[in-house]
Amino acid sequence: MTSAVEFFKTDFPATLYPLQTNLLLIQNHSTELSNYIYQKVINAGSNGDNFLSQQKVYATKPKGHLRRTVKLDPVAEYFIYDVIYRNRSLFRPEVNNNRRSFGYRFKNGSQIPVHLAYSEYKQHLRECAKKFKHNIQFDIASYFNSLYHHDIAHWFASKDNIDPLDTDALSQFFREINSGRSVDFMPHGIYPTKMIGNEFLKFIDLHGQLKSAQIVRFMDDFTLFDNDPEVVQRDFTRIQ
Fold first, then answer.
1. CA angle 10-171-49, nearest 5°?
2. Most CB within 10 Å of its CB: which of 49, 55, 186, 228?
3. What contacts 217, CB < 8 A, 6 or more positions away?
4. Tally: H helices and E strands in the chain
5. In angstroms, rounded to a whole number, what is the distance separating the alpha carbons of residues 108 and 35?
6. What value does the mean pLDDT of the chain take?
7. Which residues neighbour 69 within 8 Å (Cβ) at sequence distance 6 or greater?
8. If you average pLDDT over residues 110-121, what whole number do you get?
């Protein structure tokens, strides 16, 4: 993979809302989109241009539940793929063999396919279930909808070797696509935001007070394993 355009095209069939208009424009007019973003939208001297407020959309979930998110227009969608692709090195492998997290990063120049990562994740859960007597499974309720945009912007800005222009631009993107509201802003169902959501939770993997023999995570889905039921219960409470 050699560009944000290829990143977008590879991910396009797997997204929640694969809009053909976005594919057409990003595939054929990425130079114009890039020039408009970096010369106008994120240019403080160009007050008339910004990221547009996005359309709220809903995806179906099991049992009739709906996942509320936003569908990005071609300008905004190109930007998020571009800024994350250029900064892909900050999305790290899992912490160690006892703190496993799967998928949503680049490996050998390409993004890890979600179906392959999920298959490896399920296989590892089966292996751990054979080795340990006790486990607890849980997730973070409404994870993406609950994220606070200033927390994500601060997290991104705190990373080493990130261009300040990118940190300011990403914060502007988060703010403007949601009409200035600071929660429920993160678009679901596209690989670059999944990379952000997954990497943001690495602070839990690195937490020194967690004692479970094995912690396994796929985005915000956690499974704790240990032979002592009190250990997994304490870690469950602490992570919450």
1. 85
2. 186
3. 100, 101, 102, 201, 204, 205, 223
4. 11, 8
5. 29
6. 93
7. 16, 56, 57, 58, 59, 144, 145, 186, 187, 188, 189
8. 95
Quote the tokens at residue 71.
């569908």
pLDDT at 109 over 90: no
Q: Please answer whether residues 100 and 206 qualify as being in contact, where contact means their C-beta atoms are separated by less than 8 angstroms.
A: no
Q: Which amino acid is at 144?
A: F
In eight-state DSSP terms, residue 14 is: G
Examine the pLDDT at 83 and tell me if it is beyond 70: yes
Strand boundaries in the chain, DSSP class E: 55-60, 66-71, 99-101, 106-107, 110-111, 134-139, 214-218, 221-226
Residue 77 — very low, low, confident or very high, per pLDDT cuts 50/70/90? very high
What pLDDT, in 10s, does the model give residues 148-197?
999 999 999 999 889 999 999 999 999 999 988 888 899 999 999 999 99
Q: Is the pLDDT of residue 85 over 90?
A: yes
Q: Which residue's entry shows tokens 């340990």?
A: 132
Distance between alpha carbon 68 and the CA centroid of its chain, in Å?
A: 16
Is the pLDDT score of 1 beyond 60? Answer: no
Residue 97, both tokens? 């063999």
Residue 186 is given by DSSP the state: P
